[in-house]
Amino acid sequence: MTKTGVFDGDPTIMITKASELKKELQRLVRAIVDNDDSNAETIDRATQTLRALKEVKSKTRVSLRKPSYDGGLLSCCPEEFRCPISGELMRDPVIVSTGQTYDRPFIQRWLKSGHRTCPRTQQVLSHTLLTPNLLIREMISQWCKNHEMQLPDPTQYSNEDGLTEADRDHFISLLEKMSSTLSEQKEAARELRLLTKRMPSFRALFSESIDAIPQLLNPLSQNRSQIDLHPELQEDLITTLLNLSIHDNNKKFVAETPMVISLVIDALRSGTIETRSNAAATLFTLSALDSNKALIGKSGALKSLIDLLEEGHPLAMKDVASAVFNLCIIQENKASAVRDGAVGVILKKIANRIHVDELLAILAILSSNPKAVEEMGELGGVPCLLSVIRESLCPRNKENCIAILHTICFNDRTKWKEMREEETTYGTISQLAQNGTSRAKRKASGILERLNRVVNLTRTA
């Protein structure tokens, strides 16, 4: 393949270069016009810049009109076979949401540079999925045959993600196997799990077709009652979902695909412990988007997460805690978590010194919910948190504890007695008011001021 033009034959680069030369030429002309004493050197530079601009313009037109794999006849090929961006004969035509067709590598480059409009119509794209235009592709192929011209083998060309046409065909064949026999489903699921783990480009492929994820999950959606008979298949498919959800551009698309969240919740309740852990991790990565937090919360996922948290399997605890924390950032999910028993489960784990850091963070975020605060007081939260302050070496844990205690005590007068006894016996709160983080000092000082008022009122009475 021979390239035409300069600047790597990329028309977008040449257009940029032409723009830079125009600006330089404008500057030099202004200098000549505005300065009566302009020297010959400035005029010579302006002349050289004008020649360079003319050359770039000429080569840009050549690049746009003659494909890089020039076969002589390509200058007269139908206009609809050319990519509107590159001007080249398309080798992998795809359709964007506006209905316009482009060559895949060029429209991908356009989208990855941050554009969210159709290059030809300037309409805002409703989504960035790319659908193969099989009709145009077949017409291009037929045109080439009629003119006894062979296009280069598509497998020789990789897109910017390193995927070849053969890779895409293999991807499609793996998804098709999800509707085949059980043995082929297992084989394909295992390979997709490995591919999406090793190659980010394969994760991106799923967002290019609206049917890809439903095809992937077909074995789970069709045989939900039988999935316990094939736990390894469920594990591979859920882990593939986790790999997909890591890709930022996939998060919204994955979460909003029908049945995805419900199948992930099924996985939280059944299968291997690795499946359950990866299902929790999937919810955690998807919940990075606020819109997904609400969607996942409404699905009832928090109950399954809290049940798994209560079981306390070491392999799953961190992923579950991370998912619960992320989901509870929005107010409506806090109420759901409290209704589903989060406070009691978390306090028990903290009392047993299990994943204290993560669980204290959840308890702190739940403390803005009045029902959660009430339950913390009723379920022994005060002595539990005070013991963590005494024993912990982590400033952040101490800070979370005293902030939660501050909320509990200012909402429940009966807890001031326990706080006064703690201060009298250990001086825990005074020490924190002197040595804690700035927030911990503020909360501890607030408690001490209230304790002093309570003591003074008692003496007066």
TrEMBL record:
PANTHER family: U BOX DOMAIN-CONTAINING, U-BOX DOMAIN-CONTAINING PROTEIN 9
Catalysed conversion reaction: S-ubiquitinyl-[E2 ubiquitin-conjugating enzyme]-L-cysteine + [acceptor protein]-L-lysine = [E2 ubiquitin-conjugating enzyme]-L-cysteine + N(6)-ubiquitinyl-[acceptor protein]-L-lysine
Annotated signal peptide: none
Protein name: RING-type E3 ubiquitin transferase
Domain called U-box: residue spans: 76-150
The keyword DNA damage is annotated on this UniProt entry: no
Top-level lineage group: Eukaryota
Keywords: Repeat, Transferase, Ubl conjugation pathway
InterPro entries, per the entry: ARM-like, ARM-type_fold, ARM_PUB, Armadillo, RING-Ubox_PUB, Ubox_domain, Znf_RING/FYVE/PHD
PROSITE patterns noted in UniProt: U_BOX (PS51698)
Species in which this protein is naturally found: Rhododendron simsii
Pfam families named among the record's database cross-references: ARM_PUB, U-box
GO molecular function, a single term: ubiquitin protein ligase activity
EC number(s) reported in the record: 2.3.2.27
SUPFAM superfamilies: ARM repeat, RING/U-box
SMART domains: ARM, Ubox
Pathway: Protein modification; protein ubiquitination
Annotated TM spans: none
GO annotation, biological process: protein ubiquitination
